[in-house]
Design goal:
The chain contains twelve helices and eight strands. By secondary structure, it is of the alpha+beta class. The chain folds into two domains: 239 residues, no CATH class; 124 residues, no CATH class. The strands form three sheets. Strands 3-4-7-8 form a four-stranded antiparallel sheet, covered by helices on one side. A two-stranded antiparallel sheet has the order 1-2. A hairpin with a 2-residue loop joins strand 5 and strand 6. Helix 4 packs antiparallel against helix 5, helix 4 packs antiparallel against helix 9 and helix 7 packs antiparallel against helix 8.
């Protein structure tokens, strides 16, 4: 018996039933994304042009380490366009495959993520073509390289189809980066760049290890914890490959490049005396120093902070956020900020400081870009008995408010 073939509906020509299902499910019309997707396929042409440029350099006996500035710019821009287009297209296809009854429509979070990737493709395609037309074009003189991936949606965990899309794209990016690094190594690494090149290979190895781990976590059972862990690992892998591909495309960036920070070694669990109920424990250790005296003098705040720590199922994990923040503050990677209206802390217990990342950094496993505002969110969403304890980094921008949230008192 022959295999059954399921034909996917045209996302630009949804049926009446498709529209009805999408409306009931609150999904957004993806027709505009489909048009942007089609236009963005120019990224694949630029990728072919980049491969041709590499081949011409090799044929001419020019080391990739000595590539003309415009060629390096072309390779970086075409790589970025290719990655973003691949991610956006794969995400759309993964959603359509998972929900064939609403092809052409997307959940809001999927729409936002696909839009952020696909809408960024055109700029990089344009820059790649500019580099091909102007032998003096220097992308690094106009843009901070390596560029970061566009923001991820602030949803944890992400929908299952997002995870499947990331798993689909990962092998291609991994292979491409490995090929680029092999070519650089084979060409002979200049003495002054060996340390930076070794660090670049380390980043690629970190990305590969993270992707392998995420793949190994796949199971038929729906487990939120495993899903979150796999998601974090895949995001890390894609961000590292995205930047590694840029550095390998323009290796002169390895001189003074802002390479992503190596992963911090996770310290041993804190001593018992530093945990709640311990002699040395300070329940206000996560509270904004500029306002901590105010909260200490507030009876409702004292009850709220006590309840928060009493209900925390894993206080060691919560305290690890403090370790990450303290380390980043000491290294001048982040700074405390004051927003308009003189606000310096988040409005919810435990009232942590507001921060801004000065350089790319990972806090609590979340990758933050330069100039992103962030803080911590801790406690229960609804109540102690039915809610889930939240322990996460949330993004700004933030604004002053007179509202105070003491928790579920």
């Amino acid at each position: 018996m022959g295999a059954t073939v399921i034909l996917m509906r045209d996302p630009l020509s949804p049926t009446l039933m498709t529209r009805l299902r999408a409306k009931i499910g609150g999904e957004r019309d993806a027709s505009i994304l489909e048009v942007v997707r089609l236009a963005g396929r120019a990224a694949y042409d630029e990728r072919m042009q980049a491969d041709r440029a590499r081949a011409e350099l090799t044929a001419a006996g020019v080391s990739p380490w000595e590539a003309p500035v415009a060629v390096g710019s072309q390779l970086v821009a075409s790589w970025n366009a290719f990655v973003l287009q691949s991610l956006g297209e794969t995400l759309l296809d993964a959603d359509y495959a998972a929900y064939p009854g609403t092809v052409g429509f997307l959940p809001a979070v999927t729409f936002a993520q696909a839009e952020s990737w696909l809408s960024a493709v055109e700029d990089w395609v344009s820059l790649a073509r500019q580099a091909r037309s102007n032998p003096d074009f220097d992308l690094a003189a106009e843009y901070a390289l390596p560029a970061d991936l566009t923001d991820w949606p602030d949803v944890q965990p992400c929908p299952a189809e997002h995870l499947q899309a990331l798993l689909t794209v990962a092998p291609t990016l991994r292979e491409d980066v490995d090929v680029m690094l092999f070519a650089l190594d084979k060409a002979g690494v200049p003495a002054g760049r060996r340390v930076a090149f070794n660090r670049l290979k380390q980043l690629a190895a970190e990305a590969a290890a993270a992707a392998d781990y995420a793949t190994a976590l796949q199971t038929r059972r729906d487990n939120r914890g495993l899903h979150l862990l796999a998601e974090d690992k895949l995001r890390l892998a894609l961000e590292l490959w995205y930047q590694a591909g840029q550095l390998a495309s323009m290796p002169r960036l390895l001189t003074g490049a802002r390479l992503p920070e190596p992963p911090a070694v996770r310290p041993a669990p804190p001593p018992v005396e530093d945990l709640p109920e311990g002699l040395n424990f300070d329940p206000w250790c996560l509270t904004d120093p500029a306002t901590v005296d105010r909260w200490r003098s507030d009876p409702k705040a004292r009850r709220a902070i006590k309840e928060m720590w009493a209900c925390d199922p894993d206080p060691a994990a919560t305290l690890q956020l403090k370790v990450d923040i303290d380390r980043a503050l000491a290294s001048d990677i982040i700074e405390r900020i004051q927003v308009s209206g003189n606000g310096t802390c988040y409005y919810e217990c435990p009232w942590p400081s507001l921060f801004e990342a000065l350089r790319p950094v990972r806090i609590g496993g979340r990758r933050l870009h330069a100039h992103q505002q962030f803080t911590l969110e801790l406690g229960f969403r609804t109540d102690v008995h039915t809610g889930a304890f939240r322990r996460r980094v949330i993004l700004g921008p933030f604004h002053s408010t007179d509202e105070v949230q003491y928790g579920d008192l």
